[in-house]
Design goal:
Blueprint: E1 4-7, H1 10-21, E2 26-28, E3 35-39, H2 43-53, E4 62-64, E5 75-76, H3 80-89, E6 94-100, E7 114-118, H4 123-132, E8 136-137, H5 152-159, E9 165-168, E10 179-182, E11 189-192, H6 198-205, E12 209-210, E13 234-238, H7 243-255, E14 260-264, H8 266-272, E15 277-279, H9 284-301, E16 304-308, H10 316-328
Helix pairs in contact: 1-4, 9-10
């Protein structure tokens, strides 16, 4: 299969529609990461996404719709706090989980009676979704467990020959996946942290919980269960107060001839003062935006990436730490 990489325009959108309507998959940009989309009503098309990615079939997908799509046709019991959150943060990097009417393929939610819906803010994602005017089931457009893609080139590296079309919308500036919020209870509960923080949600909704997956329980959201976001090289993880140990490990490996890089924030990079650094940036938004980019860059250069956790771990950094630990630490 030839994989075309095209800018988003009338011609490429027409091709995307042909592919989707024939049961195929198309990679498309969002403000968080690139998605691999298929018709959410078509079970064979949805199952094909799992096959392309090598994704476990108990890991539910998110449905993407354009900003004018009537989600009440897909889900029921939309609480008042969800309406307020949508007004405040959508389109944007927030996925909300509701009780499903069961109109989309059961393969989307892996048999759950809920449906996760997202309205991305990326202008090209909106063009793509508006052109199709139907719910598109889409996980990240990468091989399962590999680092999520934030450029069309990343998608091509992973999926060349397995998808017919990648819509190129430039770099995904958000950099980490959306916050996933369970909206089926009296208060919203975060299933996966992201760029919309618990504090931001509580400010609008009045309260916000955080879910912890219990042993043996079926996952309610992507990113909760399996090792994710991992570069194709060895990794080691150190906490922010273990910088001396991280530097010692770096020096030991480089002396032994192992090409080693330290992945860290700007403040830590200055203190570490080593030659091979993957600098994530100065603040939470920069670090989130750069995380997958630097992990992808690092796997091309390094035999070993030593990740040092930033000191700041609240707000947006909670989502960053979720990805960083799953990428570089045995969890």
């Amino acid at each position: 299969m030839e994989t075309k990489v095209l800018p988003v325009n009338e011609q490429s959108l027409g091709l995307a529609k042909e592919i989707i309507e024939s049961g195929g998959a198309v990679a498309f940009p969002t403000e968080t990461v690139y998605g691999l989309g298929a018709d959410a009503f078509n079970t064979a098309a949805v199952e094909n996404i799992f096959k392309i990615k090598g994704r476990p079939n108990d890991n539910p997908l998110i449905v993407h719709v354009h900003k004018d799509y009537d989600i009440s046709s897909l889900v029921s019991d939309i609480p008042k706090y969800a309406v307020k959150l949508a007004e405040a943060y959508l389109p944007g990097p927030l996925t909300m989980v509701y009780k499903s009417f069961g109109k989309v393929s059961p393969a989307v939610s892996c048999g759950l009676d809920t449906l996760a819906i997202r309205i991305p803010a990326h202008s090209d994602a909106q063009k793509f979704l508006k052109y199709l005017d139907k719910p598109i089931a889409a996980p990240s457009a990468n091989i399962s467990k590999h680092v999520s893609p934030v450029t069309a080139e990343h998608v091509y590296f992973d999926l060349n020959g397995n998808v017919p079309l990648i819509l190129d919308g430039g770099k995904s500036e958000g950099g980490i996946e959306s916050t996933v919020l369970d909206c089926t209870g009296e208060i919203p509960v975060i299933l996966r942290s992201g760029l919309i923080t618990r504090e931001m949600i509580a400010e609008i909704a009045g309260d916000c919980g955080e879910y912890v997956l219990k042993e043996g329980e079926k996952v309610k959201s992507p990113g909760m269960k399996y090792k994710h976001y991992s570069p194709r090289c060895k990794t080691k993880f150190f906490s922010s107060d273990e910088l001396d140990k991280a530097i010692a490990e770096y020096k030991k490996n480089n002396i032994a001839g192992v090409c080693t890089y330290i992945l860290c924030d700007d403040e830590t990079a200055k203190i570490a003062a080593v030659d091979n650094v993957l600098n994530l940036g100065k603040n939470g938004e920069e670090i989130a935006s750069n995380l997958y980019l630097k992990l992808r860059d690092g796997e091309k250069k390094a035999q070993l990436i030593i990740a040092v956790a930033p000191k700041e771990q609240d707000g947006v950094m909670k989502g960053v730490m979720n990805r960083l630990t799953k990428a570089c630490k045995d969890v």
